[in-house]
Amino acid sequence: xxxxxxxxxxxxxxxxxxxxxxxxxxxxxxxxxxxxxxxxxxxxxxxxxxxxxxxxxxxxxxxxxxxxxxxxxxxxxxxxxxxxxxxxxxxxxxxxxxxxxxxxxxxxxxxxxxxxxxxxxxxxxxxxxxxxxxxxxxxxxxxxxxxxxxxxxxxxxxxxxxxxxxxxxxxxxxxxxxxxxxxxxxxxxxxxxxxxxxxxxxxxxxxxxxxxxxxxxxxxxxxxxxxxxxxxxxxxxxxxxxxxxxxxxxxxxxxxxxxxxxxxxxxxxxxxxxxxxxxxxxxxxxxxxxxxxxxxxxxxxxxxxxxxxxxxxxxxxxxxxxxxxxxxxxxxxxxxxxxxxxxxxxxxxxxxxxxxxxxxxxxxxxxxxxxx
Length: 372
Hints:
Blueprint: H1 2-28, H2 31-42, H3 50-66, H4 76-86, H5 94-103, H6 110-123, H7 127-149, H8 157-166, H9 170-177, H10 179-194, H11 202-210, H12 219-231, H13 242-270, H14 277-284, H15 286-293, H16 307-319, H17 325-340, H18 344-347, H19 350-354, H20 356-366
Helix pairs in contact: 1-2, 1-3, 2-3, 2-8, 3-7, 7-8, 7-10, 8-20, 9-10, 10-11, 10-20, 13-17, 16-20, 17-20
């Protein structure tokens, strides 16, 4: 008994020492260096607490991102601050927020406005608190998603966090400059990961649909997932066989055809409806994308040889029989978006929002090729 107690005390003291060093690293160094060193250490020891690293990740990166001067009037950040202060009025109530959403859905998503009003009401509409709180939510959702995708430690969650910062910049750039879409995307992805057709679906569906009320660009994904879950995802099938992936291939092709054939009809209807006309002008009008954003439309094969895609291809190659259903859904969505992107008359600026979702999920799953 004494021997066992001595071993437990030794393990506790060793873990305490290692995690104390991790705290010191994040306190003394830039968060980028701190995350890099901690990730490198996590490859050689399991003594590092992910809960501790997650907390340090959220605190350090939130403070780093919030430590800036928001002066550029044309930036998304300044637009968010103007929307935030626009709620500082006695005429704005919870009921009015939902009423405005039903009459003018563009930039009127109720969950985002309720969150902004709550922070503003508690802080007398402080810019610094609002900015810091928003970044804390973004990085907290990222840390929680990494925990879920790590499958209770089967995959290194610290390495997954590392990939969100260093492997590809989609999450960092969008998290810095496009708060609503990145928060909505992370919420949607968390809903996908916790979805289990063999258990209650209420919580996961509530999470998935709440993303729509943060940014309406998630509406197509929520609808697509319902179709996917009805046709393919009725029960968890592991290991997956060739028949499963044949159905996935057919469903992907059908998805591409539907977007090309029916989207122009739907878009033409949306631009004629008073409720959705502003959303059409922002997200679906091809002139907005081509003239304002000046995005290149040429196909470049080298685009798909980035580190994130290479890691993902290796992961799929070695684990194709055991892919999670949310991973298959992300790959399907990515293929549809990548094929459709070369016809901007169909989707307009919606492509820039829709393309973000599978990219962010790929960031989280790409490093799973490296088993802990």
